[in-house]
Amino acid sequence: MSDQGNFITIKALEDGVNVIGLTRGTDTKFHHSEKLDKGEVMIAQFTEHTSAVKVRGKASILTAHGEVLSDEKIKK
Ligand code: TRP
Known about the structure:
It is a single chain. The protein is an all-beta fold. The protein has one domain (about 5-70): Immunoglobulin-like. Helix content is about 0%, strand content about 55%. The protein has no helices and 7 strands. The protein has a 4-stranded antiparallel β-sheet, with no helix packed on it. Strand 6 and strand 7 form a beta hairpin. The model has no long low-confidence stretch (mean pLDDT about 95). It binds tryptophan. The site of tryptophan (TRP) has 9 residues, from strand 2 and strand 5.
């Protein structure tokens, strides 16, 4: 892949954050789910298999466009 240098980092700010990879192509489906506990970091790339990443739970997400914070799960 041509974009090997482009990483995103996801740092969990609570236990049980889910990082979900979604497929590239005509259908967009979950293909991978990674659970991070507080303080754990995942460094990931967009690849020919992965077009989008969904983060569930409270995390700091750093991309080339800046940092965004996802919120904690709303417990009902
Ligand atoms: N096998 C997947 C791929 O090469 C692994 C992967 C890459 C991934 N980026 C991801 C999984 C982001 C979850 C989130 O596409």
